[in-house]
Amino acid sequence: MKSLFKMGTVVLCVLSLFLFGFSGIGNAAERDYFKVGVITSLSGDLATGGNVTKRGYDLWAKAVNEKGGIKINGKFYKVKLYYADAQSEPSQGASAAERLVIQEKVDFVLGPYSSGVTLAVAPVLEKYKIPMITGSAESPLIWKQKFHYTFGTIPPVNYTGATPIKTLVKLQPAPKTAFILGSNDAFSKATAEAFKAAAEKLGIKVLKYNIVPAGQDLTPFMSVAKALKPDLIAFGGHDEELVNLVKSLKQINYTPKALLMHYGVTEPAFVEALGNAADGVFGASVWTETLPTKGTFLWSDAKSYADAAMKAFKVPPDYTQAGSTAAGIAFQAALQQIGATPPLSEEERDKLVSALEKLDIDTFYGKINFADEGQYYHANVGLEPLTVQIQKGKVVIVGPSEYAEAKAIYPMVPWNKR
Amino acid sequence: MELLPQAIVDGLLIGGIYITIAIGFSLAYGVMHIIDFAVGEWIMLGAFLGFYLHKGTGIDPFILLPVVFLVFFGVGYIFQPLIHRVLSGKRGNPVLMGLVFTFGLALMFRGIALTAFGFYTHSIPAKFFQGSLFFQFGNFFVTIPMIRLAGLIYALSITAILHYLLKNTDFGLAVRALAQHKESAGLMGVNAKKTGSYVYGIYVGISAMTGVIIGSIFSINAQMGADYTVFAFFVVVLAGMGYLAGVPWAAFLLGLVQSFFLIYLSPSYTLLAVFGILYVILLISPKGLFAKGV
After folding, report:
1. Chain A residues within an 8 Å CB radius of B11
2. Residue of B134, B227, B263 lying closest to A224 (CB–CB)
3. Which of A8, A385, B36, B259 has its CA 20 to 30 A from that of A125?
4. How sure is the predictor about A11, in pLDDT bands with cuts at 50, 70 and 90?
């Protein structure tokens, strides 16, 4: 029995050596497809955003492969996605990146959901010189670190966050006081900071400003709001926290003149969870399915992308999903420009980075134009930040005025009159 | 200062929610000596049953509570023999085995839920207990959200029912005997397996109902369990492991600390304060607030 076991072990060892060796040889040889790493949070607290991001990347890969692949020098190269779950933890994201590079030998990476994870993944990819575009990280901290190989299709919150406040101060009667709070993670904190900076600049008095740990019941704090009666309550957080805050305000029956949030408002689940309590909530976005864009890659405009997304997932897309798809398109365009074929050598990856820096293309998502210097280094600055509001369960653009589809509902309709 | 009554009321209401999370957990520990790391997942699964039942039938979640209880009582009843087997096995350290087993259950339930229910956050809209009561006396004012008040009443009712069951019925006597000394209780004719199954069923049923209440007050998603497990654990440790009567007081204390901190100090450090107080109390009295824990 023992010798049988020994023999089995030896056979297994030989087999695995053979397999490893074989896959090693396979990697070095020419391939007719691109290996694309996808690091995102498919489980954990940020699973919602992570899965939305995944939908965006999946849709890009599906659309590219349906056309035969990426056309480079007359030949088509398909794309194959290699997933890694960051589990909403930066440390897991970093080891996932390591695995994708070393074991899977990916050519480039479509980046994580959430800024915290991106901040952990970027240095790893920097080490291995693998280009990454993240479709959904919005903290300005990422771009301040000036990672050479990291790009992002969604502009940072300090680029977009001021826009809704600018829209709000033009409404009558303009909000004069504000409560601003953010959850304690890289993105939410940056959002709250951006809201605060913009509010102070535009003459709104900030009565309270707090960064709070995620997952606590903020109802007593909203009782303080009820006593101080701020005109505006602005909150940086993720989907679940936003839903809880609105429910808290509704339960203590305090309706500010305006309630502003950011990511999550444009998610269909926000409206589904809150029903008519979602109506009137403001948010910031860079894309909606009604935005008049003209695309030269895969989809001709926002509407046709939205239709394709709806067909694939039965859920309307939001800007995060669109931004993730656009990240794929950016790689596609840059690869075509440099004419690089898989597997990408280090030299080709450097060329890819240079091409991405010079990229200026029109897509269904809007313009993709990565900054190559300054505080937005490698973030997409080709887009116009928008103020959106939930009206009758739909995301509607209410500012800036040249993009507005409807007048903002302001002040908010009190909870008990809905 | 005008917020003082509000701080007290909010604290009690948050405490009510903590009671509902922790009471079943404390019962299960008291009788079966199992630290069930899956408590948050039972809450989550109950919440989703409530969510889908409400979606399918349109019946108010508060009316659905007994249905959710019965279903999960059944689930717990069926599950208990597995846990009993792990806990009474001859190999290894049974308490540790129990921890690992329930931790595994928690991970499994979370994974299954993520796949089956999706990753979105939902809410269970209750038509009953909408709106809020508002009182004002001079400068002081208090808002009491009806739904949270309902949560508190639910918590106190469950506590009272459990108390009655344990102190005034034969079943309760058997449960208490088992908690004190399993072998002796067996010798007196208490069927440990069956009683254990009932207790575990009751615990799982209560936790599942709590999920529905939480879904009405806050929101639910497949990942929510872990947070509630932590809170259940803290309340029960503070109350004294397995000391059921301590749970409401520990829950109210944590609720009040949280509310006062949120209102008068800073929302940034509330959880730090809650945990800080817990540690200090445990340093002074390792068996919980009343020194009656195990």
Report:
1. 220
2. B263
3. A385
4. low
Alpha helices in A182-318 (DSSP H): 186-201, 219-228, 239-251, 268-274, 302-313
Domain ranges of chain B: 4-284
Partner residue facing A224 (CB), from B3, B148, B224: B3
Inform me whether the C-beta atom of residue A239 falls under 8 Å from chain B C-beta atoms: yes
Average pLDDT over residues A44-53: 90
> A15-48, pLDDT tens digit by residue?
554 444 444 444 456 789 999 999 999 988 888 8
CB contacts of A416 in chain B (<8 Å) are 131
Interface test with A, best of B1, B121, B129, B141 (most A CBs within 10 A): B121
Decide whether A21-155+290-368 matches A159-288+385-417 in CATH topology. Answer: yes
pLDDT cut 90: percent of chain A above it = 75
Sign of CA pseudo-dihedral A88, A90, A95, A101: positive
- Across the interface, of A44, A184, A220, the residue whose CB is closest to B259 is A220
Domain A21-155+290-368 has CATH 3.30.1330.10: no
Chain A CB contacts of B134 below 8 Å: 253
Q: How far apart are CA B30 and CA A264, in angstroms?
A: 42
b/e string for B68-86 if b means 16 or more Cβ within 10 A? bbebbbebbbebbeebbeb
Which residues in chain A touch residue B17, judged by CB atoms under 8 angstroms apart? 217
Query: Taking 80 as the threshold, does the pLDDT of residue A7 lie above it?
Result: no
Question: What's the DSSP call for residue A145?
Answer: T
Query: Is CATH 1.10.3470 the classification given to domain B4-284?
Result: yes
Chain A residue closest in CA terms to B217: A247
Cβ atoms of residues B223 and A45 within 8 Å = yes
What is residue A12's predicted lDDT score, i.e. its pLDDT? Answer: 55
Averages of pLDDT over runs of 10 residues in chain B (294 residues) are 87 94 90 89 97 95 96 95 83 82 94 93 88 84 91 94 93 90 88 91 96 94 91 90 90 92 85 86 88 77
Q: Answer whether residue A5 shows pLDDT above 70.
A: no
Please state, in angstroms and as integers, the Cα–Cα distance from residue B172 to each residue in A387, B75, B162, following that order: 60, 21, 9
Contact state of A216 with B267 under an 8 Å Cβ cutoff: yes
Contact indicator for A289, A305 with CB cutoff of 8 Å: yes
- Structure ipTM: 0.89
Q: Where are the domains of chain A?
A: 21-155+290-368, 159-288+385-417
> A250 CA to chain B: closest CA distance, Å?
8
CATH 3.40.50.2300 fits A159-288+385-417, yes or no: yes
Q: Which residue of B has its CA nearest to A222?
A: B263
Average confidence score pLDDT of chain A:
90
Distance (Å, rounded) from C-alpha A253 to C-alpha A235?
18
Mind listing the pLDDT tens digit for each residue in A290-312? 999 999 999 999 999 999 999 99
Distance from CA of B40 to the nearest CA of A (A): 14
